[in-house]
Amino acid sequence: MMKSLYIAGSWLEGQGDLFESLNPVTQQVLWSGNGATAAQVESAVQAARQAFPDWARRTLDERIQVLEAFAASLKKHADELAHCIGEETGKPLWEAATEVTSMVNKVAISVQSYRERTGEKSGPLGDATAVLRHKPHGVVAVFGPYNFPGHLPNGHIVPALLAGNSVLFKPSELTPKVAELTVKCWVEAGLPAGVLNLLQGARETGIALAANPGIDGLFFTGSSRTGNLLHQQFSGRPDKILALEMGGNNPLVVDEVADVDAAVYTIIQSAFISAGQRCTCARRLLVPEGAWGDALLARLVAVSSTIEVGAFDQQPAPFMGSVISLGAAKALMDAQNHLLGKGAVPLLSMTQPQAQAALLTPGILDVTAVAERPDEELFGPLLQVIRYKDFAAAITEANNTQYGLAAGLLSDSQERYQQFWLQSRAGIVNWNKQLTGAASSAPFGGVGASGNHRASAYYAADYCAYPVASLETPSLVMPAALTPGVRMS
Ligand SMILES: NC(=O)c1ccc[n+]([C@@H]2O[C@H](COP(=O)([O-])OP(=O)(O)OC[C@H]3O[C@@H](n4cnc5c(N)ncnc54)[C@H](O)[C@@H]3O)[C@@H](O)[C@H]2O)c1
Ligand SMILES: O=CCC[C@H](NC(=O)CCC(=O)O)C(=O)O
């Protein structure tokens, strides 16, 4: 039996349901193991509770040393890890390698952010010293999505450990192998037993972990649906910190720009990178009515139809790999059919060339005529085009969503960008740049149904520790003057 869990410094067999991860193109089994039961979740929480005081008491430099050893371990295993990310998610090797680089870089960025946002400050206040310090919350759970199985959980785990928390890591059940390899890098780095525990498993394990009274907080990256469930579960618990990084229905507005090819390239990088499986991907492309818009769409369709789609290790390398599973491919094909049934016009049909491989070709649908367009995130390579009459209508349409993760404008007019920036509602607002590929050196998070105002990336430090304000003086002295109504004699 596979030892799938890492609890209190030991690899253990899960006692929950057996599950496996598959290569989404070949359906080859890559990993199989049992999930953690509620009892195993409880023992991991106990281990994390026991490990917490010692880890939190260490100096920042001592914790940084372990984090830097982790970065070194990631670099040492970079090829193996990139291969594992590629085969388990289906993303091309070149892209998987960039994910590993982001994981390595997260360490230095988190240290910089910790020092800047949650470090120590002091200054005189009256006859005392005012000191601001930060403390870790305690034991926190980290839930990861499948689309960046290394980078995104890492974006919670690294700052959480740096701040002195101990962590229970529940990865996506679709990418357990990447999670296992990542935890092995932490073990190689010398992280003390119990400080990071790995709880593999599907929904049941997640439900047991989120409900465990021993956690002080939960940092989640995943779908809006699951995030909402967690938010409900945490209602009435203001004592626990909850950070939700969720999906989007992101608009990209195109104005009549001079360089049509640059616009087309930027749209493709926004909509189809990672086979459309990035939370920041453009889902809705807003194009002006008329001949210029028609020509832009014709060029977009022509170029998109030449995009190479293939297995993660195909040579020469494809631009797009597969989506995560056959189930996800079917759901996306069903969503396309649903929109076609409601009056969408196919400009480029998304297809699944082989029934037994989760490879999808890019799709572009004109949904302008669809009444009551569903405001949902279609997490794949399917771009919906909406034609607009004037710029004001474009902005109204861009904001016509419950989500608020990313929004972009392609325009040669600075004035229009200023208007767009002011009137759009999203955590990421870009001008003439692709929507995807956000920097870890900036805050990353959305409003509306995309998040709960706890931005991650550079601002992750903020939800990993709480501020403690102190007024301090080494000896107690009587004030020169007493307040009225108090007599000391
Ligand atoms: N905003 C961001 O930073 C960001 C980044 C990446 C992905 N995403 C979003 O993530 C989604 C894709 O990821 P996914 O499909 O893996 O998300 P998901 O919500 O299905 O799963 C995320 C995690 O939650 C667990 N989970 C599922 N149901 C649960 C429940 N009822 N209780 C407790 N845990 C539960 C899963 O096992 C997994 O570990 C997309 O919506 C994407 O936009 C957002
Ligand atoms: O799928 C969602 C994340 C996409 C990715 N964003 C980041 O990497 C944010 C930076 C960070 O978390 O360090 C993107 O925008 O492509």
Question: How would you characterize this protein structure?
Answer:
One of its GO terms (molecular function) is succinylglutamate-semialdehyde dehydrogenase activity. It catalyses: N-succinyl-L-glutamate 5-semialdehyde + NAD(+) + H2O = N-succinyl-L-glutamate + NADH + 2 H(+). It is an enzyme of class 1 (oxidoreductase). This is N-succinylglutamate 5-semialdehyde dehydrogenase. This protein has 489 residues and is an alpha/beta fold. It has two domains: 264 residues, 3-Layer(aba) Sandwich (Aldehyde Dehydrogenase, Chain A, domain 1); 181 residues, Aldehyde Dehydrogenase, Chain A, domain 2 (3-Layer(aba) Sandwich), CATH 3.40.309. It is built from 14 helices and 23 strands. The strands form seven sheets. It has a seven-stranded mixed beta sheet, with helices on both faces. It has a five-stranded parallel beta sheet with strand order 9-8-7-10-11, with helices on both faces. A three-stranded antiparallel beta sheet has the order 5-6-23. α6 links the parallel β8 and β9. α2 packs antiparallel against α4, α2 packs across α6 and α9 crosses α10. Bound molecules: nicotinamide-adenine-dinucleotide and ligand L2THXQ4J.
